[in-house]
């Protein structure tokens, strides 16, 4: 492991170069054509790695094998967000309205680094097995079938032979001398509700002659907001947020219809099901007062449930390599992550890697997001070393 740590330090400039190139040319979900080509080219330059393209989207998978043994997957997401960058850096986005505001440029550079390290070292060890380097498109969004890149790769069979999988994520609230880990539910499930309330509409001067869907909405909203505050246990992690309310085009016309859209995030599958059912019921309150309320639910990724054995491998590796660094044991929040599909398929775990710069904190999904690039060499070392440790641990394929 110390050899990998030293090698990662030597290639730090290359890691920064890769990350800045990717940051300069971001691409949104299902549009990662040039990003994918860049990754494929870098992998093909690494001796011993076999590269193939995913059948769906722009996914790239590199495979490194050294005899018979377990198969470990390391995953990075490649897509950017539809956000206009405001960070004053020399390598800022050259694609207007698009930026790497969630650190996927760093994830991709780190995994390229891990592939480079492992290809250099694995033949010099007695470790046998296979490592897959999974570069995934479309983590941030879904297509018209409501599928993300992670779900596509699972259905394509990329993880069918994988015994254990690992991923990391940038963590802007921790500095590079820290990582955050958690066994069990660490990130939330994600569902979208789309509600419509219909009335008759009418003249603003004569509301009594019709049915006002805006007033009907005023009956529905308290029911929605009370779900997480009064009907779900305060010990349960659950969030309901409304992001869109649309209705009407003139101030003297009562509209005939109001549209509402929001999200639900949970750790528990039971709470998730309960909230979905109760949200549908809440919209039917409009029917009681003479209107018509309907609700459509679009189900997204499940909660990310980290496998305990995989977390142990990460923690043991981190303690060995960085004994003086902090390891924070806490859930990562209720943001969603489609690595959850991988965690449903095989034993998997994601850890959060501190990236907070010395000055300031730049949160995920914001126009000013930036990282301390010192995290790149550490992330590379941890991913590569964790993969080797998992292979060396003699993973029980029957577990």
Brief rundown of the structure:
It comes from Shouchella lehensis G1. With 399 residues, the protein is an alpha/beta fold.
Question: How would you sum up this structure, described in words?
Answer:
- Helix 1 runs antiparallel to helix 11.
- The mean pLDDT is 96.
- The protein folds into 2 domains: 275 residues, Zn peptidases (Aminopeptidase), CATH 3.40.630.10; 109 residues, Alpha-Beta Plaits (2-Layer Sandwich).
- A hairpin with a 6-residue loop joins strand 1 and strand 2.
- It has an 8-stranded mixed beta sheet with strand order 1-2-4-3-5-16-6-15, sandwiched between helices. It has a 4-stranded antiparallel beta sheet with strand order 10-12-8-13.
- The chain is α/β, with parallel strands linked by helices and 399 residues long.
Radius of gyration: 24 Å
Number of helices: 11
Beta fraction of the residues?
A: 15-25%
| CATH topology (level 3) name of the largest domain | Aminopeptidase
- For the record, the CATH class of the largest domain is Alpha Beta
Estimate percent helicity.
25-40%
List the uncertain runs. none
């Amino acid at each position: 492991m110390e050899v990998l740590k030293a090698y990662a330090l030597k290639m730090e400039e290359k890691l920064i170069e890769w990350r800045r190139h990717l940051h300069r040319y971001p691409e949104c979900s299902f549009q990662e054509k040039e990003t994918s080509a860049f990754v494929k080219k870098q992998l093909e330059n690494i001796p011993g790695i076999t590269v193939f393209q995913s059948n769906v989207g722009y996914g790239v998978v590199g495979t490194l094998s050294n005899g018979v043994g377990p198969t470990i997957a390391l995953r990075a997401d490649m897509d950017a967000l539809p956000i206009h960058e405001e960070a004053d850096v020399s390598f800022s986005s050259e694609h207007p309205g698009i930026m790497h505001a969630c650190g996927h440029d760093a994830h991709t550079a780190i995994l390229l680094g891990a592939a480079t390290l492992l290809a250099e070292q694995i033949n010099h060890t007695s470790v046998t097995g296979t490592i897959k380097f999974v570069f995934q498109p479309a983590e941030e969004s879904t297509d018209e079938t409501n599928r993300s890149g992670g779900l596509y790769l699972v259905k394509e069979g990329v993880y069918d032979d994988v015994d254990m999988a690992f991923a990391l994520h940038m963590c802007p609230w921790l500095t590079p001398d820290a990582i955050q880990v958690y066994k069990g539910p660490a990130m939330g499930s994600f569902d979208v509700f789309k509600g419509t309330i219909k009335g008759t509409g009418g003249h603003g001067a004569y509301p009594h002659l019709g049915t006002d869907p805006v007033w009907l909405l005023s009956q529905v909203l308290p029911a929605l907001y009370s779900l997480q505050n009064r009907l779900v246990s305060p010990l349960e992690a659950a969030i309901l947020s409304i992001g869109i309310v649309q209705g009407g085009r003139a101030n003297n016309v009562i509209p005939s219809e109001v549209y509402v859209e929001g999200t639900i995030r949970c750790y528990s599958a039971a709470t998730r099901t309960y909230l979905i059912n109760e949200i549908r019921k809440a919209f039917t309150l409009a029917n009681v007062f003479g209107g018509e309320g309907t609700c459509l639910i679009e189900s997204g990724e499940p909660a990310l449930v980290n496998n305990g054995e995989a977390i142990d491998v990460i923690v043991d590796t981190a303690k060995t390599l960085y004994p003086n660094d902090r390891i924070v044991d806490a859930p990562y929040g209720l943001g969603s992550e489609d690595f959850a599909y991988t965690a449903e398929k095989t034993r998997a775990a994601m850890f959060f890697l501190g990236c907070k710069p010395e000055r300031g904190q730049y949160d995920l999904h914001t126009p000013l997001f930036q990282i301390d690039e010192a995290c790149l060499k550490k992330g590379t070392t941890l991913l590569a070393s964790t993969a080797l440790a998992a292979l060396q641990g003699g993973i029980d394929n029957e577990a």
